[in-house]
Structures are given as C-alpha cells and as structure tokens.
C-alpha cells in the first residue's frame, strides 16, 4: 500500500498526507500528474490511499472507493440534542462519565454516539481488527469537514485501537469499562445501509466467539450489549436478554455482569 494526494493538492492536503503516512508507516508518493493506474504499475501495489481536500479514501481496481463517513451518527446526535432517545444508549444504560469499549468499531457511528453521550469526562475506545478500516476511520474522526460542533467533539473523543477484539479484551483489566459493546453482524448492517457499502470488502467476517463474550463479561462493570439483525440468533447462543420485542432490522440484547445494577 502507498499513500499519495489528489492532483494539484493544497499545502494542507500535503501536510495531511504526510501526517497520515507517518502515523501508519506508509510510503508517501508524490502524485505529480500520474494516474492511479500508473502509480499502481510503478509501485506494484493494488491499494492506494489518496488524500484530498475531502479527506482520505482507499482506491483499488476491484472494489468501490472506501472512505470514512459518520453514517447515522450525525442525525442521531441531533435527535439526542432535541431530547429524543436512542435505543442503543438506552439498552447500554450509558451515563455521562462512563467508559465504553466498542469491540467491533467498523466505521464508528455507534462509537461516536457513545462519545456524545458519555461527554468530556467519559471515554470511548473502539477496537478494529482490519488495519485499512482503522486507518481511515481514525483519520476521518479527526478530519471530517462537515461535522457540527457536537459531532466534531464526539468524534474527537473516540480512541481507535487496532487489533482483534478477543486479543484486546484479554489485555484489559477486570471491570475496566462500564459497558462492552458488540456489533458483529456486518453483512446485515452493510446490506441495509448505502453509507456502509464500501466497508464490506474490508470488514472482518469472523463469527463472535464464546471466549470473547466471556472476556467482555470480565471487563465490563455493568453490561455487555450485543447488536444484531432481526434474523440473528447470537443472543440465544450466548444467553443474552433481548431489550425489547424483536422488530425492524436491529435487535439489541444484553447480559449483566456480576457488578450490574
């Protein structure tokens, strides 16, 4: 993989590309007037990370461009500011100042909403196993240009950690987060949202394992929450309690920890 800029980049874009290359150990290539096809041939790579005034995106020949987008986090935060509720926050029992571990970050929409809800005194860590997704999401959280003040502040509070959720959970101390959250059913989520189409080619499709749930129950002070599609049966397999009647496309379920309220 290499990183380059769009054609005729501004100084800010070049600085952005340099910082991203340094952060993720990528080779920065001067674009000049070269096409992406010419760069692929010259550097013998399929994946090119392109930085422009609109942000960073992954370009390949076989998949559509992949880039960060806050997806539904923006309007969910607007609804919360109007006094509406959010089902995910309700089932997770999120309070200001809480620490939340999103074990399957993806594009980070849920993590952003968590970060809004926990506020400046809280903490949200998102685990992402796929380096390409983690790279673009972490960068997008810091550089998304169309964010409102509330959305921008929430995005700035999300910490991205690269690694498989099971391996990361194993390293966490007992009761170190209030809530651990899983959204492992990427195929369902991707197919139901055009905002997520690009991620399907990079997402980890591994099934959620019992050991990961056990580790999450050890790490969580209050609850472990599972999100899945309406046809999902993981909640039964792992002994989770459905939050409410199964309806629409999303089902939330939870398990209390020994220290649950």
Short description:
The chain is built from 11 helices and 12 strands.
Structure, described:
It is a single chain. The termini are far apart. The chain is an alpha/beta fold and 261 residues long. Helix content is 37%, strand content 22%. Helix 3 runs parallel beside helix 5, helix 5 packs across helix 7 and helix 8 (165-171) packs parallel to helix 10. The protein folds into two domains: 2-62, Rossmann fold (3-Layer(aba) Sandwich), CATH 3.40.50; 73-256, Rossmann fold. It is built from eleven helices and twelve strands. It is globular and about 60 Å long.
Mean pLDDT: 89
Strand order of the largest sheet: 8-7-6-9-10-12-11
- Proportion of beta-strand residues: 15-25%
Count of alpha and pi helical runs:
11
| Helical percentage | 25-40%
Radius of gyration: 19 Å
Low-confidence stretches: 186-195
Structurally, the number of domains stands at 2
**Known CATH architecture of the largest domain:** 3-Layer(aba) Sandwich
Largest sheet: 7 strands, mixed
Structural class: alpha/beta
How would you name the CATH homologous superfamily of the largest domain?
Vaccinia Virus protein VP39
The ordered string of helix (H) and strand (E) elements is EHEHEEEHHEHEHHEHEHHEHEE
For the record, the CATH class of the largest domain is: Alpha Beta
Q: N- to C-terminal separation?
A: 47 Å
Shape: globular
CATH topology-level name of the largest domain: Rossmann fold
Number of E-type strands:
12
Key descriptive features of the protein:
single chain; 261 residues; alpha/beta; Rossmann fold; seven-stranded mixed β-sheet; five-stranded mixed β-sheet; globular
């Amino acid at each position: 993989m290499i990183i380059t800029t769009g054609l005729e980049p501004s100084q800010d874009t070049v600085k952005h590309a340099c910082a991203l290359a340094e952060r993720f150990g990528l080779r920065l290539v001067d674009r000049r007037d070269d096409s992406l096809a010419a760069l692929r041939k010259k550097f013998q790579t399929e994946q090119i990370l392109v930085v422009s005034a609109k942000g960073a995106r992954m370009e390949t020949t076989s998949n559509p461009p992949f880039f960060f987008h806050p997806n539904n986090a923006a309007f969910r935060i607007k609804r919360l500011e109007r006094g509406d509720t959010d089902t995910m926050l309700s089932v997770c029992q999120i309070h200001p100042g809480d620490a939340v571990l999103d074990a399957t970050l993806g594009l980070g929409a849920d993590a952003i909403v968590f970060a809004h809800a926990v506020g400046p005194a809280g903490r949200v860590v998102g685990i992402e196993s796929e380096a390409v997704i983690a790279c673009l999401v972490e960068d997008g959280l810091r550089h998304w240009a169309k964010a409102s003040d509330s959305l921008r502040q929430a995005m700035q509070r999300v910490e991205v950690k690269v690694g498989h959720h099971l391996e990361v959970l194993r390293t966490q101390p007992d009761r170190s987060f209030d809530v651990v959250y899983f959204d492992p059913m990427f195929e369902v989520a991707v197919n139901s949202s055009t905002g997520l189409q690009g991620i399907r080619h990079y997402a980890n499709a591994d099934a959620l394992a019992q050991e990961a749930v056990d580790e999450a129950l050890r790490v969580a002070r209050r609850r472990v929450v599972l999100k899945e599609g309406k046809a999902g049966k993981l909640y039964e397999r792992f002994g989770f309690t459905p939050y409410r009647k199964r309806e629409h496309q999303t089902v939330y379920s939870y398990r209390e920890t020994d220290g649950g309220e």
